[in-house]
Each structure stands twice: as structure tokens, then as C-alpha cells.
Amino acid sequence: MIQTEVKELEEALEEAIMIAKDKNEPQLLSYTDKINEVNPISFFNKAKDINDRNRFFWTSSTDSFFLVGAGEAFGLQSTSVNRFEGIEMQWKKMLDKSLIFNSFQQPGTGPIALGGFSFDPEKENTELWEKFGGSQFRVPAYLLTVSNGNYYLTINVVVHAEDHAKQLYFELVKNKKSLIKKDKLWPVKSVISKKAEVNPDQWKELVLKAMKEIKKGKADKIVLAREMIVSFEKDVDLSSILHDLIETQTNSYIFAFENSEDCFIGASPEQLVRVEGNQLFSSCLAGTAPRGFTSIEDRTIGEELLTDVKNRQEHKFVVQMIKESVVECCEEVRVPNHPVLYPLKNLQHLYTPVQARLKNNYSIFDIVQRLHPTPALGGFPQDKSLAFIRENEQLDRGWYGAPIGWLDAYQNGEFAVAIRSALIKGREASLFAGCGVVKDSDPEAEYQETNMKFIPMLSVLGG
Ligand SMILES: C=C(O[C@@H]1C=C(C(=O)O)C=C[C@H]1O)C(=O)O
Ligand SMILES: [Mg+2]
């Protein structure tokens, strides 16, 4: 139940304890307050002192919206056949039973679920991704929301019948103070001691094999990814990596999902879906070229990309599939007829935005379920390309290429496609990059394209 009245935290805790006693079961309380300005990276950095290592970071740098989560008040994981439905059911059940004090009701405040999915739950899991399941969301114990220049702190806590309101209050306030206290940040550069591409020649042969499948008419597009493993001289400082990603990777979602010693982190330009009330946004991003060194060269490369037959093919399949999927749950679907350029620091893409009005009774998960994986990360048709990837790709994609994001209690949320990313495990990291193979592909050119896609992560990791 959501309440908009203004109550002091201590009173809210007392009320939650009463309910816990009445119902004889633990009660989730969510309490949101406005706070003074705080640096999101500083908050993220401080969070390592107060909780187990399970932080979350999210920013869509285009509208300086930040979410930073610390700790876990409630965890959601689905083992059902339909993991999207499974998570959504758990989320709704949790919300129904929660006591929520949020007089602001701004998107991204109050109880929110932060998390993501693996690319393909049917592909065998390896040790690499052992800490990340097929679906995992968490309601953070402490959440910083930065939106339209306003700062909010939400505390989510499971209260038990035998808890003492004052004692709990002191503990929560102590943690809150420590989290929002200004932290001196000294960006620490990581130093790479070793760098290895995993079987690049074998990967080029796989591109050739995919092209043969396509020429035989078995599929139109198959996206193939590969891995690079880097080792570091000392442990990587995640706050510094986030800081550098924000500084260097404009037009991108900067995200991190930490599971004890492992952290999945990246700077993805690809929006899967955003829902704000009943407004829906999605994006088709596929087709790639480098940036030019001079503005003239840059413009020439961009113009070539816009008319390049092979890249337009890659792009077309994505637009077609996203449009068809969105139409099922939306009205007033608007999709331009031609892509435009989407410039990034190291490369540029073909981009077509999608806008629509979500029909009643559909949620963000209905869209995620229909879209994932789009032909930008799977291929076209979906079943054929996925089967090829599952059988032939030598890599455990884990959460790479899959939806990562958040949703709140008010029908808002956003998911990015987790590309340009790395899984950092202590002094080692796996980087991932893929590309869309179509009938006119060239294995060497696709290899070079994936090299470009490693650069955003590699450069902030010290490579
Ligand atoms: C698969 C990746 O990117 C995707 C593939 C692209 C392409 O092949 O042109 C472009 C953008 C993304 O849709 C990746 O970055 O790993
Ligand atoms: Mg491509």
C-alpha cells in the first residue's frame, strides 16, 4: 500500500512493527525523503563500507538521471520457465504487502527493483557467471535517486515483530549519514598486466559458418560475440571505472551490478525499453562504423554508413522485429522510415527511435519479454539465430547482451541491452563484444568491428 502522507521515519518504523506483530510476519517498509546534493559516485564508493558487496549503479547520461543502490532489503529470482513473468509476479506480491511512504512519487523513487537477466537461460552456465542467475533483481536497502536536479534517498527495510523502532531508527540513520557524507574521490587508474583475445581465428571461422547458414536461407542475421580476458596488477577500483565511463562515454547508459566479489559493468548505448506511465520508448541500434579523426572525415564515414547496403540490412531486421513486437501491446506506434546516426566516442551506429503508447494492463516486463533478444543481439529470425548461437558460440554470454535496468512501483522503468561491458572478478576481467553477421559480411571486417567495440571498456580499464 502506498501512502503519500508525510511521516517521520521513526513513526513509520513503529507502524511497520505493529503490522508485523498483527500479521505475524515480517513487513517491508519503504520510506523516501528528499536530501541535499550528493555525488552518485561518492555514494557508490561509500556503500562498500556499510553493506555486503551488492551495489548497483545506473545512469542514463542523456538526462542526468542516476540510481545508486546499496545493500539488499529484498531479493527476487525466478526459476520458472517464463522468468520475466516469474519476476513480475514476485514483484507485485512484494509491493502488495509493502508499507510505502513516498510523498514525491517521482519515477525511480520509493521501492524499486534493480537487476537483469542472462542472455540465454537455456545455454549451459559456466563458472564465469556462477554468481549471476538467469534473472536477479534486488530492492536496495538504500537507494539514491537523482532526477531533474533533485536528490532523494529511499530506505527499504524488512521489519520484524520483535524489532525496536528507536534502535532500528538509529541504525538506519547512521548508515544514511555515512552514505551521503562527501567522500574524497581519487580516481585510481587500473594497470593491465596481461591481455588475451579468446580464440580470434576460431571466431572468424564461426563468422564464416554463420554466413554459410545465411546463404543457405536458414537465417537472415546471426549476432556472434567473443571474449577478451585481461588481468590487472592490483584490484580494480569500481568507483574509478564508473567515473571514467561517465567522463568518456556520452550517449550511453553507465551501469554496474555487483554480486559480492564479481561486478558486471558497462557503458551501453542501446536502450531496450523505457516506460514512463503509459509512454513507451525503444530503440533500434545496429550497423557500425568508426568515428573520423577530423570532422570532414567523420561526416564522410557517417554518410557512407547511412547508405551502406550491408549495415542497412543489419539495421532493417532490428526495426522490423521491434516494431512488430511493440505493436502487440501498444497503440500509436511511431517509427521513422530511415535511420539516423548515433555518435559515440569511438564509433557510430545506425539508429531508429521507437515511440508508442502502452495499452492498459501491459507492463514493462511484457515488452522486455517480447523484445529480448532483438535481432541486434540475437539475430533474425529469433529462434533460428538463437539456436545457432547456443550450439556454436564458444562463449558464456551470461548477462552480456541481455536486459539490465530497473522498475518502480508506479509503472516506470527502463532497460538497456548490456553491451560494451565487462565482468570484473578481482584481478581479472572478461570483456565482451559482438556484431551482426549477414550475407554480405566479411569475417575480417567483423573482427575489426568487435575490436572497436572492446575499446569503451578496455580504455577505462587501462588498456
Ligand atoms: C553486439 C554488440 O552490438 C550490437 C551490434 C551492432 C552491429 O553489429 O553493428 C551494433 C550495435 C549493437 O546492436 C556489441 O557491442 O557487443
Ligand atoms: Mg555490425
TrEMBL record:
Catalytic residue list: K221 (proton acceptor), E270 (proton donor)
Select a single GO molecular function from the record's annotations and give it: isochorismate synthase activity
Q: What are the required cofactors?
A: Mg(2+)
Give me the reactions it catalyses: chorismate = isochorismate
Q: Could you say which residues bind Mg(2+) here?
A: E314, E449
* Residue span, Chorismate-utilising enzyme C-terminal domain: 201-453
Q: Does the keyword Magnesium apply?
A: yes
Q: Which residues form the signal peptide?
A: none
Q: Report keywords, A-Z.
A: Isomerase, Magnesium, Menaquinone biosynthesis, Metal-binding
Write down the EC number: 5.4.4.2
Domain of life of the organism in this record? Answer: Bacteria
Per the record, the pathway is: Quinol/quinone metabolism; menaquinone biosynthesis; Quinol/quinone metabolism; 1,4-dihydroxy-2-naphthoate biosynthesis; 1,4-dihydroxy-2-naphthoate from chorismate: step 1/7
Among SUPFAM superfamilies, the record links this protein to:
ADC synthase
Any Pfam family: Chorismate_bind
Hey, which family's this protein in? Answer: Belongs to the isochorismate synthase family.
Biological function: Catalyzes the conversion of chorismate to isochorismate.
The protein's name in its UniProt record: Isochorismate synthase MenF
Specify the species.
Aquibacillus albus
